[in-house]
Design brief:
Blueprint (H helix, E strand, L loop, with lengths): L8 E2 L8 H10 L6 H7 L3 H5 L9 E7 L25 E3 L6 E3 L3 H5 L4 E7 L6 H10 L15 H12 L9 E4 L18 E3 L18 H17 L11 H17 L1 H6 L7 H7 L3 H14 L4 E5 L20 H25 L6 E7 L2 E2 L4 E4 L13 E4 L2 E2 L3 E7 L7 E2 L1 E2 L6 E3 L4 H11 L8 E3 L5 E3 L15
Parallel strand pairs: 1-18, 2-8, 2-9, 5-15, 6-7, 6-8
Antiparallel strand pairs: 3-4, 5-14, 9-14, 10-13, 11-12, 16-17, 18-19
Helix pairs in contact: 5-13, 7-8, 11-12
Length: 479
């Protein structure tokens, strides 16, 4: 990000209470809060206000592959290259003539006309932190840092949508359903624009989201009574309130109560509302139910939704980081392919079947690809996708110079392939797309002009939300 000039400036936010802490306070009674506590809660208003319930407001679901997916073994296969590079998987035809992908993804192959493959992504950071920060925030630094310097696109978009207003939806406008939590965050935009995070496993029969919708009508009445009491006690002179803190509190309070008491909130998170066949189609596992919940939430009006495909379904080390010391890259891909293929294909199919395809953009990506040349090293531990410790096995290392992602919905022209890599998949040779292009394209779908929009950094300087990116025309909404 670079400093620029624009008439559109989003003020930096002061530090709020975290969402869960607020809910605990709210349930114990607003009347007990002192003025300093009320002021501190002001910044949280925006996150819970959830502006925008209009049917034409666009939304994004980003499915994140932490660790980086092998492009050669999925969406950019190179069956003619030598055994030093080529994996064991065959390619299969898709529903798009001339486009072939790995045999590991037959369900996605059948619906390839509903998504576009971008084979020419590249960025410059080889480490997970820096690579993720490039993709999620546009930070050009190639050095790994323990925490982000710039806010991620999700927090920026949430803050801009909040400023625009116009929603009466009780749901937050940015939710992470086991979303990415490493190497990203709101940074200087402020914690009020962090996601409403759901960390549980939606496939478990006892899954529920805490602090969403009071199930007991009596609790809802008592909470409303406490709010009324707090307001009746608030007889102080408001002339000193030069920053509008108390007005913001009023909005915050009403939205927080709505989140707790509106039955729509509980229903949106309730997967039991889905029929058994639909739940089966996504897969009765964590990834499948995460993406089903993501679809339910954007359908209910959430505008920014992230979901990370990590954990035990990835294999021994819980991510896509398929070094030989972690995984046998090919065994790991076999292990996770079924759940991944089923969940992603079901999500894309549903977006079209339910009439969400013009409004909701689905993006599936990681921070980079994997080395085209296969490396061999001893395993550091046995488990799913990995041979016993000490066994020499194949792996692929980090590769930011070329990788693939897929895009669906969003009113885009689907069924195509954008860009190309060389015969070994090492470098982009056609239509190279950067992390900034990736971000500009997502912002454009959300109606945000990344060429002019700025935010204030910690020093109050207006800072462009994207440095040098241009939208990718094929991935933008058709008129």
């Amino acid at each position: 990000m670079v400093t620029g000039s624009s008439s559109k400036i989003i003020p930096a936010c002061s530090g709020p209470l975290d969402r869960r802490s607020f809910m605990r306070v709210g349930l114990s009674g607003f009347a007990s809060l002192g003025l300093p506590a009320l002021f501190r809660m002001r910044a949280q208003a925006a996150a819970l206000a959830s502006p925008g319930a209009k049917g034409d407001r666009t939304a994004v679901i980003m499915v994140w592959q932490p660790g980086g997916c092998s492009h050669l073994d999925t969406y950019d296969p190179k069956p003619e290259i030598g055994s030093e590079y080529r994996g064991p998987f065959k390619t299969i035809a898709t529903s798009v003539p001339g486009t072939r992908i790995t045999e590991l993804l037959p369900l996605q192959a059948r619906i390839a006309d509903k998504f576009t493959i971008l084979r020419s992504m590249h960025q410059t950071a080889a480490g997970h932190p820096a690579g993720s920060m490039q993709m999620l925030s546009g930070d050009p630094d190639t050095r790994d840092k323990p925490k982000p310097r710039y806010p991620d696109w999700m927090s920026i978009a949430a803050s801009i949508r909040t400023r625009e207003g116009g929603r009466d939806n009780p749901l937050p406008n940015y939710i992470g359903v086991s979303g990415p939590t490493e190497y990203n965050g709101p940074a200087y935009v402020g914690a009020a624009y962090a996601p409403f995070s759901i960390s549980g496993d939606p496939s478990r029969p006892d899954f529920e989201v805490p602090n969403i919708g009071l199930s007991n009508a009596g609790e809802a009445v008592r909470l409303s009574d406490r709010v009324a009491l707090r307001k009746s006690l608030d007889t102080m002179e408001r002339g000193f309130d030069t920053l509008g803190e108390l007005g913001a509190l009023d909005q915050f309070e009403s939205q927080a109560v709505m989140l707790l008491t509106n039955p729509r909130t509980r229903d949106a998170f309730d997967l039991s509302k889905e029929d058994a066949a639909t739940r089966d189609r996504y897969g009765r596992n964590r990834w499948g139910q995460q993406l089903l919940l993501a679809r339910r939430l954007v359908e209910a009006g959430v505008e920014i939704l992230t979901s990370s495909l990590s954990g035990p379904l990835c294999g021994r080390v819980g991510n896509w980081d398929d070094h030989a010391v972690n995984h046998n890259v090919f065994d790991a891909l076999r292990f996770r392919a079924g759940a991944y293929d089923q969940a992603v294909s079901a999500l894309i199919e549903d977006v079209y079947a339910r009439g969400l395809d013009k409004r909701v953009l689905v993006v599936v990506t990681g921070e980079f690809g994997r080395t085209p040349k296969i490396e061999f090293s001893p395993s550091t531990g046995g488990g799913d996708g990995s041979a016993p410790s000490g066994t020499t096995q194949p792996g692929r290392d980090h590769w930011p110079r070329a990788f693939s992602n897929i895009w669906a919905g969003g009113g885009i022209q689907t069924g195509g392939v954008i860009g190309a890599t060389d015969k070994r998949g090492e470098d982009v040779v056609e239509r190279g797309c950067t992390a900034d292009d990736f971000l500009a394209t997502i912002y454009q779908h959300l109606g945000i002009d990344s060429a002019s929009e700025t935010i204030n950094d910690l020093n109050g300087r207006p800072t462009r939300i994207v440095q040098n990116g241009r939208t990718i025309p094929e991935l933008t909404r058709r008129a």
